Amino acid sequence: MDFRESDELAAHRDAARAWVRANVRPEWVDEQRRSGCHQTPALHERLARDGILAAGWPKEYGGGDVDPDYARAVFDECARTGLHFDGWSTTSMVLHTVLHVGTEEQKRRYLPGALRGEILIALGYSEPDSGSDVAAAKTTAVRDGDAWVVDGQKMFTSTAQVCSHVFVLARTNPDAPKHAGLSLLLVPTDDPGFECRPIHTLGGQVTNATFYSSVRVPGTALIGEVDQGWNAMRVALVYERGVSGPASVDWSLAPDLAAWADGARRPDGTPVLDDPLVAERIGRIAVEEEVSRLLGGWMNWHAAQGGVPGTEGSMRKLYWSESGQRHLADALDVLGAEGLLAPDAPDAPAGGMFEHEFRAAAVTTIYGGASEVLRDIIAERCLGLPRSRPQVKPARPAGTG
Ligand SMILES: Cc1cc2nc3c(=O)[nH]c(=O)nc-3n(C[C@H](O)[C@H](O)[C@H](O)COP(=O)(O)OP(=O)(O)OC[C@H]3O[C@@H](n4cnc5c(N)ncnc54)[C@H](O)[C@@H]3O)c2cc1C
């Protein structure tokens, strides 16, 4: 892998900035912060209209001609304005899973619709009693003729309030061992048996508890084989920690912090940036943000070669989330009392971004794979250290003994 930024990438970045200037409205950031919903339908429509959602996907399933590096640059630039697009991130993880384990009919049904911006999918894995131990899910799906009937509750079904579907992990065989009796279903959110209730979080994000009361879905909504959901889910989790997950977007705090420190004055009238301790902290943030960016490039490069970025994604997610939390804590230290000004305060540095992101970053070491779990993965798969828990054998199809 070549770590240098090519002229082509720099040109994509310029074009992406121009796209953001022409298409992104500053009030969308305020709206996301006010509502807590990290998905803006108007932005999504524009990303679909200009082929940015469809970039890099197979042509036969609705993929387009837009260069994936340009598309990535557009997402990066959107994120720099403070916008989130979590609904698209989760949708993209599910689409990767459908590509890996779905039927031809499912690929032709779900991919083109999602790439046109018409299908948006939330993740329904976690439950009140199961998060990291996601295979302990209790929500059930029971076969009824050609259909499945889903009953249960999911926790933290983020962006479900604006999604057309939830990718539900359900128990289809209560008699099989924990990992062997699970299946994945795409459940439409317009079913009368579906209910979505908001959960307000410290970071300002409003996620959801979702409830399923005799929700009936056709047999074609089952993604992958019956009772083989755990294997399909492992594909989805790799993408969640890798190219499509929260860590797929870079943080870039150092330039804003340096600009503030250059303009702000110490009691003696000199710039805050003249304080060597401040300059050193900002320098460290800049270096670590670059390391995180390069780990992201390595992960994307691996995916572009046709690989599934498993351990690469875990490393990047771990480094991105833990260094990001450190950087935001450092930034608040440097900013002093001004750092506590929230986005609605008129004089808040960088529009209150530091205060807001500090709160928002608290969950980044929990969702998409908690740090302790990612460390286990890296220790076992990269360093060859012994497993800390028993090996889970891949589930066998029902009836194979
Ligand atoms: C804002 C937010 C958004 C979310 N969005 C979604 C979503 O869209 N869809 C969805 O399905 N879920 C979502 N989640 C849920 C998230 O994936 C879980 O919170 C996460 O998996 C952790 O599960 P838990 O909360 O039950 O904590 P636990 O699993 O109970 O973890 C508690 C602590 O124990 C540690 N721990 C757990 N297992 C191990 C282990 N094997 N070894 C060492 N330490 C361990 C953890 O690292 C953690 O520190 C979201 C969560 C949050 C906070």
Automatic annotation (TrEMBL):
- Sequence ranges assigned to domain Acyl-CoA dehydrogenase/oxidase N-terminal in this UniProt record: 7-118
Q: Which residues form the Acyl-CoA oxidase/dehydrogenase middle domain?
A: 122-203
Q: Which Gene3D superfamilies match?
A: Acyl-CoA dehydrogenase/oxidase, N-terminal domain (1.10.540.10), Butyryl-CoA Dehydrogenase, subunit A, domain 2 (2.40.110.10), Butyryl-CoA Dehydrogenase, subunit A, domain 3 (1.20.140.10)
Q: Which residues cross the membrane?
A: none
Query: What sequence ranges are listed for the domain Acyl-CoA dehydrogenase/oxidase C-terminal?
Result: 227-382
Give the highest taxon in the source lineage: Bacteria
Q: Which SUPFAM superfamilies match?
A: Acyl-CoA dehydrogenase C-terminal domain-like (SSF47203), Acyl-CoA dehydrogenase NM domain-like (SSF56645)
- Keyword terms, alphabetized: FAD, Flavoprotein, Oxidoreductase
Q: Which InterPro entries does the entry link to? A: Acyl-CoA_Oxase/DH_mid-dom, Acyl-CoA_Oxase/DH_mid-dom_sf, AcylCo_DH-like_C, AcylCo_DH/oxidase_C, AcylCoA_DH/ox_N, AcylCoA_DH/ox_N_sf, AcylCoA_DH/oxidase_NM_dom_sf, Mycobact_Acyl-CoA_DH
What are the names of the required cofactors?
Answer: FAD
Q: Please give the family membership noted in the entry.
A: Belongs to the acyl-CoA dehydrogenase family.
Protein name listed in UniProt: Alkylation response protein AidB-like acyl-CoA dehydrogenase
The lineage, from the top, is: Bacteria, Bacillati, Actinomycetota, Actinomycetes, Streptosporangiales
